[in-house]
Request: fold
Amino acid sequence: MRERELERVMRDFNAQRSNLLLCSTIIESGIDIPTANTMVIHRADKFGLAQLHQLRGRVGRSHHQAYAYLLTPPEDALGAQAKKRLEAIQMMQELGSGFYLAMHDLEIRGAGEVLGEAQSGEIQEVASRSTRACSSARCAL
Reply:
Protein backbone atom coordinates (compact mmCIF):
# COMPACT_ATOMS: atom_id res chain seq x y z
CA MET A 1 0.00 0.00 0.00
CA ARG A 2 1.34 3.41 -0.87
CA GLU A 3 2.12 5.89 1.88
CA ARG A 4 -0.74 8.29 1.06
CA GLU A 5 -3.30 5.50 0.93
CA LEU A 6 -2.02 4.03 4.19
CA GLU A 7 -2.31 7.44 5.83
CA ARG A 8 -5.89 7.84 4.55
CA VAL A 9 -6.90 4.38 5.77
CA MET A 10 -5.44 5.02 9.22
CA ARG A 11 -7.14 8.43 9.47
CA ASP A 12 -10.49 6.89 8.50
CA PHE A 13 -10.09 4.13 11.07
CA ASN A 14 -9.03 6.57 13.78
CA ALA A 15 -12.01 8.83 12.98
CA GLN A 16 -14.30 5.76 13.08
CA ARG A 17 -15.35 6.16 9.43
CA SER A 18 -14.48 2.45 9.14
CA ASN A 19 -14.90 -0.18 11.83
CA LEU A 20 -12.45 -2.81 10.65
CA LEU A 21 -8.74 -2.58 9.97
CA LEU A 22 -7.09 -5.54 8.29
CA CYS A 23 -3.35 -5.19 8.60
CA SER A 24 0.03 -6.80 9.06
CA THR A 25 2.16 -6.72 12.19
CA ILE A 26 2.99 -3.08 11.42
CA ILE A 27 0.25 -2.35 13.95
CA GLU A 28 2.56 -3.48 16.79
CA SER A 29 4.86 -0.50 16.31
CA GLY A 30 3.10 1.91 18.62
CA ILE A 31 -0.12 2.87 16.90
CA ASP A 32 -2.48 4.24 19.54
CA ILE A 33 -6.18 4.16 18.68
CA PRO A 34 -8.20 4.20 21.92
CA THR A 35 -11.45 3.19 20.19
CA ALA A 36 -9.96 -0.10 18.94
CA ASN A 37 -11.28 -2.73 21.32
CA THR A 38 -11.07 -6.06 19.48
CA MET A 39 -8.19 -7.77 17.73
CA VAL A 40 -8.08 -11.11 15.95
CA ILE A 41 -4.59 -12.55 15.39
CA HIS A 42 -4.52 -15.24 12.71
CA ARG A 43 -1.96 -18.04 13.30
CA ALA A 44 -0.86 -16.67 16.66
CA ASP A 45 1.37 -19.74 17.00
CA LYS A 46 3.71 -18.23 14.39
CA PHE A 47 4.44 -15.10 16.44
CA GLY A 48 7.05 -14.61 19.13
CA LEU A 49 6.07 -13.87 22.69
CA ALA A 50 7.16 -10.23 22.49
CA GLN A 51 5.19 -9.74 19.27
CA LEU A 52 2.04 -11.22 20.78
CA HIS A 53 2.42 -8.99 23.81
CA GLN A 54 2.89 -5.88 21.66
CA LEU A 55 -0.01 -6.76 19.38
CA ARG A 56 -2.31 -7.49 22.29
CA GLY A 57 -1.38 -4.11 23.76
CA ARG A 58 -2.82 -2.27 20.75
CA VAL A 59 -6.37 -2.83 22.03
CA GLY A 60 -7.87 -1.78 25.34
CA ARG A 61 -6.19 1.59 25.44
CA SER A 62 -9.24 3.34 26.89
CA HIS A 63 -11.86 2.64 29.53
CA HIS A 64 -13.73 0.12 27.33
CA GLN A 65 -13.34 -3.65 27.75
CA ALA A 66 -11.06 -5.06 25.05
CA TYR A 67 -10.57 -8.49 23.52
CA ALA A 68 -7.66 -10.15 21.73
CA TYR A 69 -8.50 -13.43 20.03
CA LEU A 70 -5.51 -15.61 19.16
CA LEU A 71 -6.38 -18.08 16.41
CA THR A 72 -4.26 -21.22 16.16
CA PRO A 73 -4.40 -24.65 14.58
CA PRO A 74 -5.56 -27.53 16.83
CA GLU A 75 -3.35 -28.00 19.90
CA ASP A 76 -1.93 -31.32 18.68
CA ALA A 77 -0.59 -29.52 15.57
CA LEU A 78 1.36 -26.94 17.61
CA GLY A 79 5.07 -27.24 18.33
CA ALA A 80 6.34 -27.37 21.91
CA GLN A 81 7.68 -23.80 21.85
CA ALA A 82 4.47 -22.41 20.32
CA LYS A 83 2.47 -24.07 23.10
CA LYS A 84 4.74 -22.54 25.74
CA ARG A 85 4.45 -19.06 24.17
CA LEU A 86 0.67 -19.26 24.00
CA GLU A 87 0.42 -20.53 27.58
CA ALA A 88 2.66 -17.68 28.77
CA ILE A 89 0.65 -15.00 26.97
CA GLN A 90 -2.58 -16.41 28.43
CA MET A 91 -1.20 -16.38 31.97
CA MET A 92 0.10 -12.80 31.76
CA GLN A 93 -2.95 -10.62 31.41
CA GLU A 94 -2.28 -8.00 34.06
CA LEU A 95 -1.08 -4.47 33.39
CA GLY A 96 2.72 -4.38 33.54
CA SER A 97 3.19 -8.06 32.75
CA GLY A 98 5.76 -7.30 30.03
CA PHE A 99 8.72 -8.00 32.34
CA TYR A 100 7.34 -11.42 33.29
CA LEU A 101 6.68 -12.22 29.63
CA ALA A 102 10.28 -11.31 28.82
CA MET A 103 11.43 -13.71 31.54
CA HIS A 104 9.24 -16.49 30.11
CA ASP A 105 10.60 -15.74 26.65
CA LEU A 106 14.14 -16.04 28.00
CA GLU A 107 13.25 -19.41 29.56
CA ILE A 108 11.62 -20.68 26.35
CA ARG A 109 14.26 -19.53 23.83
CA GLY A 110 17.30 -19.39 26.05
CA ALA A 111 19.75 -16.53 26.35
CA GLY A 112 22.12 -17.57 23.58
CA GLU A 113 25.57 -16.08 23.24
CA VAL A 114 26.31 -12.80 21.51
CA LEU A 115 29.45 -14.05 19.75
CA GLY A 116 29.32 -17.79 20.44
CA GLU A 117 27.82 -20.89 18.87
CA ALA A 118 24.47 -20.90 20.71
CA GLN A 119 22.54 -18.16 18.92
CA SER A 120 18.89 -17.22 19.06
CA GLY A 121 17.41 -15.73 15.90
CA GLU A 122 19.59 -14.66 12.99
CA ILE A 123 22.50 -13.04 14.83
CA GLN A 124 24.86 -15.91 13.95
CA GLU A 125 24.38 -15.29 10.22
CA VAL A 126 24.85 -11.54 10.71
CA ALA A 127 28.00 -12.13 12.76
CA SER A 128 29.49 -14.56 10.25
CA ARG A 129 28.74 -12.22 7.32
CA SER A 130 30.37 -9.35 9.21
CA THR A 131 33.37 -11.50 10.02
CA ARG A 132 33.78 -12.58 6.37
CA ALA A 133 33.44 -8.98 5.18
CA CYS A 134 35.93 -7.81 7.75
CA SER A 135 38.40 -10.60 6.87
CA SER A 136 38.29 -9.80 3.18
CA ALA A 137 38.76 -6.08 3.86
CA ARG A 138 41.49 -6.76 6.47
CA CYS A 139 39.60 -4.97 9.22
CA ALA A 140 41.15 -4.47 12.63
CA LEU A 141 38.77 -4.79 15.55
In short: The first strand starts at residue 38 and ends at 41. Residues 123-136 form the longest helix (14 residues). The two ends are 42 Å apart (CA to CA).
